[in-house]
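Bit of a strange request maybe. I'm writing a small parser for structure token strings and I need a real example to test against, not something I typed by hand. Could someone generate the tokens for this chain?
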Amino acid sequence: MLKIFISTIILLVSLKANSFNEKIINIIGYDEYRVNKGLIDHLFSNKGAYYKNGSLNYIPVIEKLKHNGLLRVGFNSPQNVVITFNVSHDPIKSLKIISDSLKALGYYHYFTKQLIYDENTNLKWTITLKTEAAIDPLMLSKELFKHNSLIVDIKKEGYTKWMYTINTSNSTLSKARLITAGEEVRFRKPLKPYFVKINKANSINILSRPGNQWFPSVVFYDRHLNILDIVKEDKAHKSINLEVPEETKYIKINDIYTLANIKRGLSVIIKE
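Reply from user aminoacidic:
Good idea to test on real output. This should exercise your parser:
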């Protein structure tokens, strides 16, 4: 019985090691892994330390690979890079989170090659961009983590193709400003529409500052980022008071023409 138990433990450890090595190969490519296998085995001698809740914790793994020169994302000349993102939760919100993460890393100019999502909440988004370096998976992982989203699988296919599987089941929009009931928040000149997050509210009061000529555009979203209601006014307002639809989690505040119309900023008050 003891021998069987020991054999089972050895088998499980071996399977976990093989799985770990496969993950490393998927991140850096087989050629890089083969050349540096000895170093990789030394760096990750305690493979179990890189798992969290049964899943590989990608950030410390990629961090160690990068700091030891094993993560190569640069090219000798500009290349057409293809990146696919797979998500199985909240496709609309997930698309925004990934898009915002790419922008935060300086990636604005890319083309959508394929975008598919279905009623089962699965999202597959493939983009292409011409670049001298592929997206750094460590920087992308950290940016997604700000939105409480985790990379659960990475596959490097050749030199110019990457596939990321991302868990957004507990995601939040990190750039959204949380406003509690009774709180007044004064926003400065916007570089993009204001995006706020609420927990519970019956109404929202938005006040325009002197010097503005605000033509309100207000969009209410649920926690999945599905649109609940849209309010647009083609007459300039000094203030507007709106009822907040049930299940509202996020609110986008804009001007129907140009952000220059609210260059002095706005004040927002949430009431319960």
